[in-house]
Amino acid sequence: MSIPYLKPTVTLLCYAPLLWLVLDALSSNLGSNPIQGLHIRLGDWTLRFLCITLAITPAQTVTGWKSLSPYRQLFGLITFTYGTLHVFVYLTVDHFFVWEVIATDIIESAYLWFGVVAYLIVLVLALTTLKTIKNLMGEHWKKLHKHLYLAAGAALLHYFWQLKGNLAEPLLYSTLIALLLVFRVFIRVKNQQQSGLMVQKTKK
Amino acid sequence: MLIKTKKTIPWVEITDPAVFKNRRMFIKSLLLLPAINPGLSAVLASNRSTGLPDKPEPETLTPTPYGLPQRYTNYYEFSSDKQDPARLAQKLPIDPWSIEVSGEVERGGIFNLEDILSKHTLQERVCRFRCVEAWSMVIPWLGFPLKDLLSRTRPLSSAKFVAFTAVRAPEVMPNLAAQDTLHWPYVEGLRLDEAMHPLTLLATGMYGDPLPKQNGAPLRLVVPWKYGFKSIKAIVKIELLKRPPTTSWHGFAPTEYGFYANVNPAVPHPRWSQYSERVLGSGFFTARRKTELFNGYGHEVAHLYKGMNLSHFI
Q1: Cα atoms found within 13 Å of the Cα of residue B68, Cβ hemisphere only
Q2: pTM of the predicted protein model
Q3: Chain B CB within 8 Å of residue A91 CB
Q4: Which uninterrupted H or E stretch holds B175?
């Protein structure tokens, strides 16, 4: 399967929400609390790209397309980009580098702890996408990158923990991520059983 | 052409009128500076002693830009979104409106809103409004002190608390049927001495307009030193009680939303800090405002809580 210019097109599309957000910000179209508007929009897109990234491997399993792997990396890095912008807006647009207020805010806000954990995991995963590091890490790399599920869990807690009432949206993302995780576990168990059977057969 | 600017000139940049009136002499004296050096010193000295304040006057509050508070409201009966109530609340019928005053009072009853309003003169009060979600506004309210109404009803000595109930109109309030967040109708409460405090208002308007429906028309409470959820909208009942009522948010999550709900930067919400607030209307790349104890009204209300541990009585 090779569609010309597919990857550059997908990459550009990934930046469309950012362009849309910048246009909304420039035209004062982010509502009465535009800074919170920025936080929410960037946070939402980080979580959406995280879900897409997590969905690539199951999609490969279902469709049998091996050529999806580069897209997993692309979406992972896009997740990192939106996550970084989310943190950057918090530090600059919202807090304007007033470190005393930032420190107090982070120490006293449990919902932020989960956000920090999620971001740090994504940061480590982004840094280890470099080919040289990936090659150096060998088998450990795969294990490390499964921690994206941990980042997803932390990001969801970060979302739930800041809400007063309406939990519909984070519940939706939670369901999606839980389904992806269940699918992965299911495939893994199935593979183990199959290899177990093969071992038994060879013994006979 | 008059160029209007919203910028206020800091007092340090304003020339003292005495200096301005003597400007010719001031300039002349500059020309003659070498000759009359002592004279210039005298002019400068007189500038220092013309009664300019040593520090700026107490901060005068600048209201949040008109329109913003009208488009950003927490009105959960209609929606958990802050923009929806501006549209959805328009369906709420508010005329005629009556308010029941009952409980531990001598002169209770059901009163027409007009009859209540005819007995009070509306005054404008520019107040800070601090939400528990760590944003804030400054609102020019139109209203009258709650104590004026309460005094008329003659509370009995047994009355210790005041409960307020908001309108319950399931036919126009989409979230009432769901019962998923809070138990409706919305209920709030104050201790009687808090309710009798001159800062506690019943508001019927803001920015010189009648109160918009999404902001709590026709009558709402304003308690400027407490988190915004205490300032209940669309009041239909005021009850004087012996015991504290179970208020809506407190009943929903007692460890997160206290009965008192005094603004206090030192006591974080269990899930987020209350140390600072985003002043709505401020632009990008502006620092957050550091939240003040009792929302800056401490000199007027701190005595109400003397001897109370404020991190316990949240």
Answers
A1: 21
A2: 0.84
A3: no
A4: helix B174-178
Residue ranges of the alpha helices (H) in A1-109?
6-14, 16-26, 34-63, 69-89, 99-108
Residue range A141-164: average pLDDT?
95
In a domain, B227, yes or no: yes
CATH number at residue B97: 3.90.420.10
Tokens of B181: 């967040």
Residues B148 and B26 in one domain: no
Say how far residue B133 (Cα) sits from the centre of its chain: 15
**Interchain contact B26–A (C-beta under 8 A):** no
* Number of domains observed in the structure of chain B: 2
The Cβ of residue B271 has, within 10 Å, a number of other Cβ atoms equal to 17
Per the CB < 8 Å rule, is A105 touching B273?
yes
B266 contact residues in A (CB cutoff 8 A): none
Residue in the block written with tokens 């009136």: B21
Q: Which domain holds residue B170?
A: 68-305
Closest of A172, A186, A160, A171 to residue A61, by C-alpha: A186
The helix or strand, by DSSP H or E, that contains position B129, with its residue range, turns out to be: strand B123-130
Which residues in chain A are contacts of B290 at CB distance < 8 A? Answer: 101
Q: Do the Cβ atoms of B80 and A105 come within 8 Å?
A: no
ω into B218 cis (within 30 of 0): yes
Residue B4 lies in a domain: no
Query: Cα separation of B85 and B91, whole Å?
Result: 10
Residue closest to B54 by CA, chosen among B95, B89, B11, B114: B11
Tens of pLDDT along B222-251?
999 999 999 999 999 999 999 999 999 999
Cβ(A109)–Cβ(B273) below 8 Å: yes
* Residue A48, SS3 per DSSP: helix
Q: Does B79 share its domain with B44?
A: no
Chain B residues touching A109 at Cβ < 8 A: 268, 271-273
User: Cβ(A180)–Cβ(A55) under 8 Å?
Assistant: yes
Q: Would residue B81 count as lying in a domain? A: yes
Do B275 and A101 touch, CB atoms closer than 8 A? yes
pLDDT tens per residue, range B158-169: 999 999 999 999
At residue B43, does pLDDT exceed 50?
no
